[in-house]
Write a structure and sequence with these properties.
Elements (H helix, E strand, L loop, with lengths): L2 H21 L13 H4 L12 H12 L21 H13 L10 H17 L13 E5 L2 H16 L3 H5 L5 E6 L4 H10 L6 E4 L10 H13 L3 E8 L11 H11 L2 E5 L24 E4 L1 H4 L7 E5 L2 H8 L9 H5 L18 H35 L4 E3 L7 E6 L3 H13 L6 E5 L2 E7 L7 H19 L7
Parallel strand pairs: 2-3, 2-4, 4-5, 5-6
Antiparallel strand pairs: 1-7, 6-7, 8-9, 9-11, 10-11
The structure holds pyridoxal-5'-phosphate.
């Protein structure tokens, strides 16, 4: 494909995406394809001869679109949002077009330096503690995901807890990780990859109302492990758990970590974005104790996957934990010690120029635009919670400090399960579920850029009307 062909087909591709975005709200959110249907629409083998681009483009509508779940639909409320935006997509295109590998500073200085500055900009926008800024001993890096951030934090924590022994000889003593019973599954996965095993993760009890980690239970778990001769290496606290957006009490947890010299990693994958708003920064109280922190701009901050923002307070420790120096990567800039080589801050060697999408997004929206986006999600969640509260057939199950609302039918699990299935089957809204105190609970995660008050109101009407079919109109007074 020569540059002129690229220009022509590129315009057609951008048109296709713009059309998709402007019509996505009219599509059924989930695919009706049974398993295997998409694969059956594809030939059994790659074509022998190259094809024309229009033929490829035409097959998108035939082969791919019917098998899509439309994550950018304004009534997609499942999981957490996976925001994308025009500036983010255009920057991703640019990153692909440049085709730069940013593993070393020397392999493209702009790829490293734009990233360092963007991470400082983001730290400023969230008002993160000074210790995470590159101007001091810390710094930020873009990881592909919060899962990778937790893994990298775990490795750095093991390096520190073992006094450097872990790097040479692996996990030979019993190192321990701690997270609440509500901690994300990626914490166990990181522990397994790092060699601690699933048993190396201590699940810490949460308080029964707000579901935050109980500091006394954390202390008891640490003491029990110390008494058994184990080594507490890392505590992963969460701001905004996946199940209900619970907030662990960082001031107390941080003080315990400081007392025992345990690495504190804070996972704010979804909720971290809220800290662009000063009125929501209380959710980050105690963050000054953290050795590392991450959140996903690819969830709620208008930046397409993949983009996890990860910071450490001691970048030298992180680099020591992860660096390996083969002859073929040696170069004068690295040798001078004056540059950052981000390969030493992550698992893989290669890396894309992902900072471009942060740069574009932050400039296009400005801090004001980002705050408006977060505030809109929080206000809509508030509005939804009001509607749930006004209907006696339902109950709110957890606090909703961000844009996730958890609720269920008082009638019971069976009715709540049926409700979710029926609502999703309409194709007009999509919610997911969790279990809270063992009981089936619907999660409605607001935060897509296209979602308006009318979408939330109509979705609630759909939920409420479906509830009437299942449990009758009794108790309804909204
Ligand atoms: C979504 C989520 C993760 C995982 O995010 P990825 O970036 O997809 O790895 C981790 N922790 C929490 C609290 C999450 O909500």
């Amino acid at each position: 494909m020569d540059p002129d062909e690229f220009r022509r087909h590129g315009h057609a591709m951008v048109d296709w995406i713009a059309d998709y975005w402007s019509t996505v709200a009219q599509r059924p959110i989930t695919s009706q394809d049974p398993p295997g249907a998409v694969a059956a629409r594809l030939p059994l083998a790659a074509p022998e001869r190259g094809e024309e681009f229009p033929a490829i483009l035409a097959d998108l509508d035939k082969v791919v679109v019917p098998g899509l779940t439309h994550w950018q639909h304004p009534n997609f409320y499942g999981y957490f949002p996976a925001n994308i935006s025009g500036p983010s997509v255009l920057a991703d295109l640019l990153s692909s077009g440049l085709g730069v590998q940013g593993m070393l500073w020397a392999t493209s200085p702009a790829c490293t330096e734009v990233e360092t500055v963007m991470m400082d900009w983001l730290a400023g926008l969230l008002d993160l503690p000074e210790r995470f800024r590159s101007t001091g001993t810390g710094g930020g890096v873009i990881q592909d995901s919060a899962s990778s951030a937790t893994l990298v934090a775990t490795l750095a924590a093991l390096h520190r807890a073992s006094g450097g022994q872990w790097r040479a000889s692996g996990v030979q003593r019993r190192y321990r990780a701690y997270t609440s019973t509500q901690g994300h599954s990626s914490i166990e996965k990181a522990a397994r990859i790092a060699g601690l095993g699933a048993d190396g993760v201590r699940p810490v009890e949460v308080d029964p109302e707000a579901f935050g980690m109980r500091p006394d239970a954390l202390r008891a778990a640490i003491e029990a492990d110390l008494a058994a001769g184990d080594v507490p290496a890392i505590v992963v606290a969460t701001i905004g758990t996946t199940s209900t957006t619970a907030i662990d009490p960082l001031p107390e947890i941080g003080a315990i970590c400081a007392e025992y010299g345990i690495w504190l990693h804070v996972d704010a994958a979804y909720a971290g974005a809220a800290a662009v708003c000063p009125e929501l920064r209380w959710t980050h109280a105690g963050l000054e104790y953290a050795d590392s922190y991450c959140f996903d701009p690819h969830k709620w901050l208008l930046t397409g996957f993949d983009c996890d923002a990860f910071w450490v307070a001691d970048r030298a420790g992180l680099v020591e934990a992860l660096t390996v120096m083969p002859e073929y990567l040696r170069n004068a800039a690295t040798g001078s010690g004056a540059v950052i080589d981000y390969r030493d801050w992550q698992v893989s060697l290669g890396r894309r120029f992902r900072a471009l999408k942060l740069w574009f997004v932050l400039r296009w929206y400005g801090a004001e635009g980002l705050r408006a986006h977060i505030r809109s999600g929080v206000a809509l969640a508030d509005r939804l919670a009001g509607l749930v509260r006004a209907d006696d057939r339902f109950e709110l199950v957890a606090p909703h400090p961000f844009s996730l609302v958890c609720f269920r039918l008082r009638a019971g699990d069976e009715q709540s399960t049926e409700l979710l299935e029926r609502v999703n089957a309409t194709g007009r809204a999509y919610l997911t579920h969790t279990r809270v105190d063992g009981r089936y609970t619907l999660r409605m995660a607001i935060g897509a850029p296209q979602t308006t008050e009318a979408h939330v109101r109509r979705t609630w009407e759909l939920i409420s009307d479906t509830a009437t079919v299942l449990v009758g109109p009794e108790g309804r007074h909204s």
